[in-house]
Amino acid sequence: MIGYTIIRQQRVPNGPTLSLYNCYLGQLRRVPLPSPRHNMHSLDETDPIAVALAPPQNESPEERRARIQIERAAKQASDDIDEQLRKEQQHLKRQPKPVKILLLGQSESGKSTTLKNFQLMYEPKAFRAERASWRAIIQLNVIRSFRIILDALARASTDRPSSVYSGLSVSSAGAVDQEPNFPDAELMALRARLLPLLQIEETLVRRLGAPDHGNVGESRSLGTATSSWQLSLPLSAKRAGKEKEVAVPSGAAWKSGFLRTDRSSVDTAHAVDWDAPGDPGPILHASSADMQRLWANPTLSEILGRQGIRLQESSGFFLDALEQVTLPQYTPTDDHILRARLKTLGVSEHRMKLSDPHGGVTREFHIFDVGGQRSMRPRWIPYFEDMDSIIFLAPISAFDQRLAEDPVINRLADSFELWTTIVSNKLLAKTNLILFLNKVDIMLAKLAAGIRLAEYLPAYGLRPNDFDSASKFLRKQFGTILKSHSPSPRVFYCHLTTAIDSKSTHYVLANIKDMLMRLNLKESYLII
Ligand SMILES: Nc1nc2c(ncn2[C@@H]2O[C@H](COP(=O)(O)OP(=O)(O)OP(=O)(O)O)[C@@H](O)[C@H]2O)c(=O)[nH]1
Ligand SMILES: [Mg+2]
Fold first, then answer.
1. Atom 15 in ligand 1: residue holding the nearest Cα
2. Which of 70, 242, 316, 387 could connect to 141 by a Cys-Cys bridge, CB 3.0–4.6 Å?
3. What is the pTM of this model?
4. CATH assignment of 128-228+255-339, among 1.10.10.10, 1.10.260.40, 1.10.400.10, 3.30.1300.10
5. Is 110 in the pocket of ligand 1 (CB under 6 A)?
6. Residue 2: what pLDDT?
7. d(CA 373, CA 497)
């Protein structure tokens, strides 16, 4: 490293600026200064440097030659340092800035899932080293689903008429009919056996160190609902708003609570402390058969349907993988990690090096993941400056749902409002906006099940209720907002995505990475 202090600079008439340096650079020689005792009277005695630099009064020709030689060497050293500095500054300028991406969108839109996809693509080792931590989150997700089921059974059993006994009802003609909408004795027995599972939740939450086990308090939000939205939503949406959800401050700190401290390998088998006191693995395994039997029970699905609960479409759904998830030494697959749900609080920055396989260029990417709940949104603003790109996630399948934190607001209406706020923000005028119309898989299933988009979005009118028409319509709506609200014209990048599908998502992310690298390279050359 170069280190020096400029003592004095002198400009020789018609010549270069001379700098005398007090160098502590190994290869540079310290310049011995002539004694100030000589020739004092002809100098400005108030300037110690001028005194120091003055040649001795009675200098012999040899001394003069030696002095000039020393001065030349000092000048050379000074020039070398200048040159070295110039080169370093040029190198720094050539070094491209990191590419900065901010992930935005409402809660449960898929921001953290998109980040996981980036990590899986570009930091697979680190991603897989965290399997043990995700195992605990998946266990939490499973128990949360069972809490919803057991509550629904309790509600159904208190709702049923007194004539119903053990799932059988007596018809007016005296015949005994099967009554499918009320829990029978077997269902209630399964419920009683599975109730102790709920205690595991508390243990896991404690290990997670989660400060928030419920809905975060409300504060200012960036958007409000439009009045043109119909808010008669199915019961599932109303119930979803009441469900408590575990959240942790973003970042990696919570993950350490589930990893062995003495592990010597990143293998999950070594990372999980299988014998940790309170590990839920053994209880889940012992309850596995009951859990599977309950979930497969057709009466349960009717009860859930009657209460408007659609677990298959909810976050962190693992009930179709119970056999696998409750194995004694269960280790999550990549696919399971992408499906795991853990609400984000605050903002976290993730750095990774991404390379261009064609040009061999490597760039540092900084990806910012934020909590999407309304109370979190004011915290996004400090990150708006200096962002290269925003990936905005709008979960289009949520057209028939309301916000968990504000149950009067339709989730698709909230996405439109939020998108409007982002595209019109002047701080983001130069930022590339990339829109992901996410949760395509759920959208497909809902439309196929006959849930009508026009019922919740009257502007959709009489268009066919199929995916092609619906996605084109929504894409156009978002595009029109961009065009009419952006402070200056910008390209509308829009992708239909299913973030839990790593293959299709990786394809989209690789294209975005290439595009951002190209833009970043261009910009780097421009500033030189
Ligand atoms: N079926 C399906 N599930 C998805 C998709 N994208 C995300 N999810 C799931 O939806 C849930 C919520 O996704 P997250 O990535 O945690 O949402 P988020 O935007 O980070 O939410 P906050 O942290 O609350 O702001 C997770 O369980 C994901 O696995 C998708 O395209 N299809
Ligand atoms: Mg998140």
1. 110
2. 316
3. 0.74
4. 1.10.400.10
5. yes
6. 37
7. 21
- pLDDT for 275 equals 73
Contact 364, 195 (CB under 8 A): no
Question: Residue positions in the annotated binding site?
Answer: 338-344, 369-373, 438-441, 499
What is the H or E stretch that residue 419 is in?
helix 411-424
Distance 107 CA to ligand 2 centre (A): 7
Give the number of other CB atoms < 10 A from CB of residue 201: 20
Q: How far is the CA of 4 from the centre of ligand 1 (A)?
A: 54
Task: For the sheet with 343-345, list strands across it.
Answer: 212-213, 246-249, 343-345
CATH of 99-124+342-526, one of 3.40.50.1010, 3.30.360.10, 3.40.50.300, 3.90.960.10: 3.40.50.300
Q: Residue for token digits 């339709």?
A: 410
CB 341 near ligand 1, within 6 Å: yes
As annotated, the residues of the chain forming the CATH 3.40.50.300 domain(s) are 99-124+342-526
Helix (H) or strand (E) holding 225: none
Name the H helices within 262-367. 268-271, 281-296, 298-306, 322-325, 334-339
* Centroid of ligand 2 to alpha carbon of 369 (angstroms): 7
The bound ligand whose nearest atom lies closest to the alpha carbon of 380 is 1
Give the model confidence (pLDDT) of 94-132 as tens digits: 667 889 999 999 999 999 999 999 999 999 988 888 888
Residue intervals of the chain classified under CATH 1.10.400.10 are 128-228+255-339
From 102, 112, 216, 467, give the residue whose CB has the most ligand 1 atoms within 8 Å, as the site to mutate: 112
Distance (angstroms) between ligand 2 centre and the Cα of 389 equals 18
Query: What's at 498, amino acid-wise?
Result: T
| Token pair of 401 as six digits | 């749902």
* Biggest alpha carbon–alpha carbon distance for the chain: 136
pLDDT of residue 274: 72
Ligand 1 atom index nearest CA of 369: 20
Instruction: Give the nearest ligand 1 atom to 442 CA.
Output: 1
pLDDT band of residue 265 (cuts 50, 70, 90) is low
Is any atom of ligand 1 closer than 6 Å to the C-beta of 432? no
Helix extents (H) in 43-168: 48-53, 61-94, 111-122, 124-129, 131-159
Q: How far is the CA of 346 from the centre of ligand 2 (A)?
A: 9
- Is the pLDDT score of 306 beyond 60? yes
372 close to ligand 1 (CB < 6 Angstrom): yes
Query: Is 145 a pocket residue for ligand 1 (Cβ < 6 Å)?
Result: no
